[in-house]
Amino acid sequence: MSANTRVTRASNKDTHPGMPDVDEDVLGRPVPKPRRTKAQIVAENATAAEKKSAKAEEVKSNNNKRAQLIERIATLEKEMRDDEQQAESEAAHPPAKKRTALVTKPPTGSKRMNTHSFRCGYY
Fold first, then answer.
1. What angle is formed at CA 95 by the lines to CA 93 and CA 97, rounded to 5 degrees?
2. C-alpha angle with apex 34: 32 to 36, nearest 5 degrees?
3. HSE-up of residue 68 (Cα within 13 Å, Cβ side)
4. Alpha helices in the chain (DSSP H)
5. pLDDT digit string (tens) for 24-65?
6. Alpha carbon of 12 to those of 1, 26, 99: distances in Å?
7. Would you say the pTM of this structure is higher than 0.70?
């Protein structure tokens, strides 16, 4: 390994001298981020927990609203069905008509068909 590719951490520069951390302009690679402190980690975890609980409450409230809407729609549909049944039972229905026969009977008194009745449509 050449000396140009080695990078020494700032905390280690006095213990083992080598090539110190330099800007990314010099090496062409990014400088590592400093580590987070315990206080920063605790704060980030607390905010993440708050966001998660807020999201859970929002989902719960949305589910409650949705259940209420579904219940309201169900009651409206039931009312509509009841109204239709009541209207149908109270409706004035006309009396049933007798069906008329479409086929005419042969004239009474003659058993044979004569040509005149056949031509005129009496049969």
1. 130
2. 135
3. 6
4. 24-27, 38-90, 115-120
5. 566 666 667 889 999 999 999 999 999 999 999 999 999 999
6. 19, 20, 110
7. no
